[in-house]
Amino acid sequence: MGSQVLVAYATKYGATAEIAERIGQVLRQAGLGVDVLPAERVGDVRAYKAVVLGSAVYIGQWRKQAAAFLRANEQALAERPVWLFSSGPTGEGDPVKLVQGWRLPTKLQPIADRIRPRDIVVFQGSANVQKMNFLEKWMLKNVKAPAGDFRDWDGITAWAAAIATALKEAGLT
Ligand SMILES: Cc1cc2nc3c(=O)[nH]c(=O)nc-3n(C[C@H](O)[C@H](O)[C@H](O)COP(=O)(O)O)c2cc1C
Protein backbone atom coordinates (compact mmCIF):
# COMPACT_ATOMS: atom_id res chain seq x y z
CA MET A 1 0.00 0.00 0.00
CA GLY A 2 1.26 3.51 -0.79
CA SER A 3 1.53 6.39 1.62
CA GLN A 4 -1.63 7.83 3.10
CA VAL A 5 -0.57 11.42 3.49
CA LEU A 6 1.20 13.75 1.08
CA VAL A 7 3.23 16.66 2.35
CA ALA A 8 4.00 18.79 -0.73
CA TYR A 9 6.03 21.98 -0.64
CA ALA A 10 7.65 24.69 -2.72
CA THR A 11 10.87 26.28 -1.59
CA LYS A 12 13.54 28.55 -2.99
CA TYR A 13 16.30 28.26 -0.42
CA GLY A 14 15.28 25.20 1.59
CA ALA A 15 13.64 26.67 4.70
CA THR A 16 10.17 25.50 3.64
CA ALA A 17 11.47 22.05 2.67
CA GLU A 18 12.75 21.60 6.21
CA ILE A 19 9.38 22.64 7.65
CA ALA A 20 7.70 20.08 5.37
CA GLU A 21 10.18 17.41 6.51
CA ARG A 22 9.39 18.17 10.13
CA ILE A 23 5.65 17.89 9.49
CA GLY A 24 6.26 14.57 7.73
CA GLN A 25 8.32 13.33 10.66
CA VAL A 26 5.57 14.14 13.18
CA LEU A 27 2.95 12.41 11.03
CA ARG A 28 5.17 9.33 10.67
CA GLN A 29 5.72 9.20 14.41
CA ALA A 30 1.94 9.12 14.73
CA GLY A 31 1.92 5.97 12.61
CA LEU A 32 0.90 7.45 9.26
CA GLY A 33 2.51 6.60 5.93
CA VAL A 34 3.84 9.87 4.52
CA ASP A 35 5.49 11.14 1.34
CA VAL A 36 7.25 14.50 1.59
CA LEU A 37 7.80 15.84 -1.93
CA PRO A 38 8.46 19.06 -3.84
CA ALA A 39 5.09 20.06 -5.32
CA GLU A 40 6.37 19.69 -8.90
CA ARG A 41 7.37 16.08 -8.26
CA VAL A 42 4.04 14.81 -6.99
CA GLY A 43 2.44 12.14 -9.14
CA ASP A 44 -1.27 11.49 -8.65
CA VAL A 45 -2.80 13.31 -5.68
CA ARG A 46 -5.64 10.78 -5.80
CA ALA A 47 -3.24 8.19 -4.40
CA TYR A 48 -3.33 10.00 -1.04
CA LYS A 49 -6.04 10.28 1.56
CA ALA A 50 -4.94 13.66 2.86
CA VAL A 51 -2.68 16.49 1.70
CA VAL A 52 -0.57 19.11 3.44
CA LEU A 53 0.70 21.81 1.08
CA GLY A 54 3.12 24.58 1.93
CA SER A 55 5.05 27.31 0.18
CA ALA A 56 7.65 29.93 0.84
CA VAL A 57 6.30 33.47 0.37
CA TYR A 58 8.09 35.98 -1.86
CA ILE A 59 6.57 39.44 -2.27
CA GLY A 60 3.21 38.24 -1.07
CA GLN A 61 3.11 35.31 -3.48
CA TRP A 62 3.50 31.57 -3.17
CA ARG A 63 6.22 29.90 -5.23
CA LYS A 64 4.81 29.10 -8.65
CA GLN A 65 5.17 25.33 -8.14
CA ALA A 66 2.86 25.42 -5.11
CA ALA A 67 0.35 27.71 -6.83
CA ALA A 68 0.36 25.49 -9.92
CA PHE A 69 -0.14 22.40 -7.75
CA LEU A 70 -3.13 23.98 -6.03
CA ARG A 71 -4.68 24.97 -9.37
CA ALA A 72 -4.01 21.69 -11.14
CA ASN A 73 -5.34 19.54 -8.32
CA GLU A 74 -8.27 21.63 -7.15
CA GLN A 75 -10.85 18.92 -7.60
CA ALA A 76 -8.88 16.13 -5.95
CA LEU A 77 -7.98 18.46 -3.09
CA ALA A 78 -11.61 19.48 -2.59
CA GLU A 79 -12.42 15.79 -2.06
CA ARG A 80 -9.74 15.28 0.61
CA PRO A 81 -8.79 16.80 3.93
CA VAL A 82 -6.23 19.51 3.15
CA TRP A 83 -4.00 21.71 5.28
CA LEU A 84 -2.13 24.73 3.90
CA PHE A 85 0.86 26.56 5.30
CA SER A 86 3.09 29.42 4.26
CA SER A 87 6.66 29.97 5.39
CA GLY A 88 7.24 33.67 5.36
CA PRO A 89 7.72 36.41 7.87
CA THR A 90 10.95 36.90 9.71
CA GLY A 91 11.03 38.66 13.05
CA GLU A 92 9.79 37.92 16.55
CA GLY A 93 6.15 37.69 17.57
CA ASP A 94 2.90 36.44 16.09
CA PRO A 95 3.56 35.60 12.41
CA VAL A 96 0.03 36.63 11.39
CA LYS A 97 0.61 40.04 12.98
CA LEU A 98 3.98 40.31 11.25
CA VAL A 99 2.22 39.95 7.90
CA GLN A 100 -0.70 42.18 8.97
CA GLY A 101 -3.33 39.50 8.74
CA TRP A 102 -2.13 38.07 5.40
CA ARG A 103 -3.08 34.38 5.19
CA LEU A 104 -2.81 33.38 1.54
CA PRO A 105 -2.04 35.16 -1.75
CA THR A 106 -5.22 36.93 -2.91
CA LYS A 107 -5.05 35.12 -6.26
CA LEU A 108 -5.23 31.73 -4.56
CA GLN A 109 -8.00 32.57 -2.11
CA PRO A 110 -10.88 31.65 -4.49
CA ILE A 111 -9.30 28.23 -5.08
CA ALA A 112 -8.83 27.75 -1.35
CA ASP A 113 -12.48 28.73 -0.83
CA ARG A 114 -13.51 25.87 -3.09
CA ILE A 115 -11.08 23.36 -1.57
CA ARG A 116 -12.07 24.35 1.96
CA PRO A 117 -8.84 23.47 3.78
CA ARG A 118 -9.07 22.29 7.37
CA ASP A 119 -6.60 24.99 8.30
CA ILE A 120 -4.48 27.71 6.71
CA VAL A 121 -1.49 28.91 8.70
CA VAL A 122 1.46 31.23 8.37
CA PHE A 123 4.73 30.12 9.93
CA GLN A 124 7.74 32.27 10.46
CA GLY A 125 10.44 31.57 7.91
CA SER A 126 14.14 31.83 7.52
CA ALA A 127 15.87 34.47 5.44
CA ASN A 128 19.44 33.39 4.83
CA VAL A 129 21.29 36.35 3.36
CA GLN A 130 24.26 34.17 2.44
CA LYS A 131 22.07 32.39 -0.09
CA MET A 132 20.33 35.50 -1.46
CA ASN A 133 21.22 37.46 -4.53
CA PHE A 134 21.84 41.19 -4.41
CA LEU A 135 18.28 42.09 -5.39
CA GLU A 136 16.76 39.84 -2.74
CA LYS A 137 19.00 41.31 -0.04
CA TRP A 138 17.96 44.79 -1.10
CA MET A 139 14.26 43.87 -1.14
CA LEU A 140 14.45 42.33 2.30
CA LYS A 141 16.02 45.51 3.65
CA ASN A 142 13.40 47.56 1.87
CA VAL A 143 10.51 45.78 3.62
CA LYS A 144 12.50 45.98 6.90
CA ALA A 145 12.33 42.20 7.34
CA PRO A 146 15.17 41.00 9.54
CA ALA A 147 17.51 38.32 8.21
CA GLY A 148 17.83 35.10 10.18
CA ASP A 149 16.07 31.88 11.01
CA PHE A 150 12.82 32.54 12.86
CA ARG A 151 11.18 29.16 12.30
CA ASP A 152 9.04 28.12 15.26
CA TRP A 153 9.74 24.40 15.49
CA ASP A 154 7.45 23.92 18.49
CA GLY A 155 4.58 25.62 16.67
CA ILE A 156 5.22 23.57 13.53
CA THR A 157 5.37 20.33 15.53
CA ALA A 158 2.15 21.17 17.39
CA TRP A 159 0.36 21.96 14.13
CA ALA A 160 1.48 18.66 12.60
CA ALA A 161 0.44 16.78 15.74
CA ALA A 162 -3.05 18.31 15.44
CA ILE A 163 -3.20 17.09 11.83
CA ALA A 164 -2.23 13.59 12.96
CA THR A 165 -4.99 13.65 15.58
CA ALA A 166 -7.57 14.82 13.04
CA LEU A 167 -6.55 12.10 10.59
CA LYS A 168 -6.71 9.43 13.26
CA GLU A 169 -10.14 10.61 14.30
CA ALA A 170 -11.17 10.38 10.65
CA GLY A 171 -10.08 6.73 10.79
CA LEU A 172 -7.13 7.09 8.48
CA THR A 173 -4.78 4.94 10.54
C1 LIG B 1 13.08 38.99 -1.71
C2 LIG B 1 12.30 38.37 -0.59
C3 LIG B 1 10.95 38.65 -0.48
C4 LIG B 1 10.19 38.10 0.56
N1 LIG B 1 8.86 38.40 0.65
C5 LIG B 1 8.14 37.93 1.69
C6 LIG B 1 6.76 38.28 1.82
O1 LIG B 1 6.19 38.98 1.01
N2 LIG B 1 6.08 37.79 2.88
C7 LIG B 1 6.67 37.00 3.81
O2 LIG B 1 6.03 36.61 4.77
N3 LIG B 1 7.99 36.61 3.68
C8 LIG B 1 8.72 37.07 2.66
N4 LIG B 1 10.05 36.72 2.52
C9 LIG B 1 10.66 35.77 3.49
C10 LIG B 1 10.72 34.34 2.96
O3 LIG B 1 9.44 33.91 2.60
C11 LIG B 1 11.26 33.39 4.02
O4 LIG B 1 12.59 33.70 4.16
C12 LIG B 1 11.03 31.92 3.69
O5 LIG B 1 11.11 31.15 4.87
C13 LIG B 1 12.01 31.38 2.68
O6 LIG B 1 11.70 30.05 2.37
P1 LIG B 1 12.58 29.11 1.43
O7 LIG B 1 13.98 29.01 2.02
O8 LIG B 1 11.86 27.81 1.46
O9 LIG B 1 12.62 29.71 0.06
C14 LIG B 1 10.81 37.24 1.50
C15 LIG B 1 12.18 36.95 1.37
C16 LIG B 1 12.93 37.50 0.35
C17 LIG B 1 14.38 37.18 0.23
Please describe what this structure looks like.
The chain is 38% helix and 21% strand. The protein has 173 residues and is an alpha/beta fold. The strands form 2 sheets. Strands 1, 2, 3, 4, 5 and 6 form a 6-stranded mixed β-sheet that branches. The protein has a two-stranded antiparallel ribbon with strand order 7-8. The radius of gyration is 16 Å and the shape is globular. Bound molecules: flavin mononucleotide.
Q: Count helical runs.
A: 7
Give the overall pLDDT as a whole number: 95
- Structural category: alpha/beta
Write the H/E string, N to C: EHEEEHHEHHEEHEH
Strand content: 15-25%
Overall form: globular
Distance between the termini: 13 Å
What is the strand and helix layout of this fold?
Blueprint: E1 5-10, H1 15-29, E2 34-38, E3 50-58, E4 61-62, H2 64-72, H3 74-78, E5 82-87, H4 95-98, H5 109-115, E6 119-123, E7 126-127, H6 134-142, E8 148-149, H7 153-169
Parallel strand pairs: 1-2, 1-3, 3-5, 5-6
Antiparallel strand pairs: 3-4, 7-8
Helix pairs in contact: 1-7
Summarize the structure.
The protein is of the alpha/beta class.
Defining traits:
single chain; 173 residues; alpha/beta; 8 strands; 38% helix; globular; binds flavin mononucleotide
